[in-house]
Amino acid sequence: MSKSKTTASTPSPLLDQYGADTARLFTMFAAPPEQTLEWSGAGVDGAHRFLRRLYLLGQSQAQMLQTQNQQPGQAQHTELPKALQAVRREVHEVLQQANFDYDRAQYNTVVSAGMKILNLLESTRAETPPAHAVFTEGLSILLRVLYPIVPHITTRLWQHCGLESAHGSLLDAPWPEVDPSALVRSELVLVVQVNGKLRSKIEIAADASRESIQALALADETVQNS
Fold first, then answer.
1. C-alpha–C-alpha distance, residues 80 and 92, integer Å
2. pTM to 2 decimals?
3. CA–CA gap between residue 16 and residue 48 (Å, rounded)
4. What pLDDT, in 10s, does the model give residues 83-140?
5. N or C: which end of the chain has fewer CB within 10 A?
6. Which of 126, 172, 25, 108 is nearest to 158 (CA)?
7. DSSP state of 16
8. CA-to-CA distance for 179 and 87, rounded, in angstroms?
């Protein structure tokens, strides 16, 4: 941690006030390992708020998670409603990027990946069995991705949410694998340009033919009025 007129060169005050996990998260997120870390009070507060959100989310869903983890199993992607397929696809896309960033020791972007997954889980209404499965899988991925960075809170949630009974201790749990089926898109969104200007966006089947794409684009009301 770089020294300035207003801060000391030791993280002890940070550890005393916020705990080791916040200190670790802040130092990992604030700058890549090869760069000098500049102190930021707002950054520390942000790291602490993120961990608080993570803990409260796990606590709020603990009963459902404990029940779900008594019957562990991967969500069957093709059987999920489209909205849940989208959530699961984004989680696995973020996991794929996090794995790549870990290999490059880009820990700041690994933390960013964790934040993206947390945002996804917070926006997922875990009210049905399929949603329970997607949420549980997503949280188990999130905790494993963040474990090397914030081991204390992730271990606590892993145990409290019943994941230890399903997968063993977090220390020995297998690293999450990207599910290729989750990355497959059944539909795509294409932009439609007229004379180089964006006029519309159309949603098509991933295996749509060139002819059907052209017909759909030409039938678009905005395109017709261009």
1. 15
2. 0.77
3. 13
4. 999 999 999 999 999 999 999 999 999 999 999 999 999 999 888 888 999 999 999 9
5. C
6. 172
7. H
8. 13
